[in-house]
Amino acid sequence: MAADVKNKNIADGRVAAWHIDEDTNQVVIEIADPSDKDVLALRDRYGSGLVRVISGSRPITARKVTTSEKPIKLQKVSKSSIAMLEQAKSPSRLLDFAAYNSAVRIFTLDPNGNTIYQCTTAMHRKSLTEVVTAGHCGPTGATFYQGYYDQAASIAYYTDILGTVSLSIDGNGNPDFANIKASVALSDQQYTSDVVNLEEYVATTETSDSIKFAVGQSVCTNGSFTGYVCRGATVNAVDICIDTDAADLVCGIDRATSGDGGSIVQSGDSGGPILTGSLSAGAQVGGVIVAEDRFGLDVFTSEASRI
Questions:
Q1: Domain of 67, in residue numbers
Q2: Rg of the chain (C-alpha set)
Q3: The pairing of beta strand 26-31 with beta strand 51-55
Q4: Which of 57, 89, 104 is the last residue of a domain?
Q5: Which of 4, 167, 209, 293 sits at 20 to 30 Å (Cα–Cα) from 176?
Q6: Are 112 and 8 part of one and the same domain?
Q7: H or E stretch at 220
Q8: What is the pTM of this model?
Q9: Is residue 194 part of a domain?
Q10: Which SUPFAM superfamilies match (predicted)?
Q11: pLDDT tens, 181-190?
């Protein structure tokens, strides 16, 4: 059955996500607008007790893609110039801090130089000079910058070249993540002491294989566009496979849903951290934001233990 789902041999390729419900020992298949015919065909094929069909839409990757009519200009600026910039509510994420920290905005340009992909950093790998973000944010070999895009001026401001993607994985039964080989030395410290609103940030940047999400667990997100938000979000599915607008069969994915009807993710948050634990006790980065659904009410994440 799993092979059929993975190979998209059911429901004419309209499978949006699927996972194993260990409590009922069923395969839960989410299909865009499932018909009675779909449900009956699956029950006849596998047995009514082994399959449960529910309605689900195709998740959309949470990277921000912008195309300009003219080539995008790269402009390096000093960190001290941040006081003059008003393009974001949290400018410290854009230029002030080293880009290997969590929740910092990063971007890469396409080879033609007129399309920019904006994403977020999640964490760095312990004992390695690599930063983790989402795989769909850029292919192996892509150069990432720390900074942000001023669309009106068609200028991408940056303080440093973060580095080059050494490995980008997305789909084909794998999770969605990328390792960026940093061009600057990494540090174990998160944000510098001059941050005023410390509650917006997290304390741990390193990935930890010990963190595994469970259904019902409370989580928060920290994308560079949305900022740090919790909104009573809880995990409602673990180790699922999804199809996104960027890749088919992205597996090893967890899903969490907002608890108060407010968005917890938006375009540009891809690659950012999903967190567990309280800030006061030391929140930990447990995964990488990869996609959204229902206008940001649902967030999909590659769990840190699987990447």
A1: 61-182
A2: 20
A3: parallel
A4: 57
A5: 4
A6: no
A7: strand 220-223
A8: 0.79
A9: no
A10: Trypsin-like serine proteases
A11: 887 665 543 3
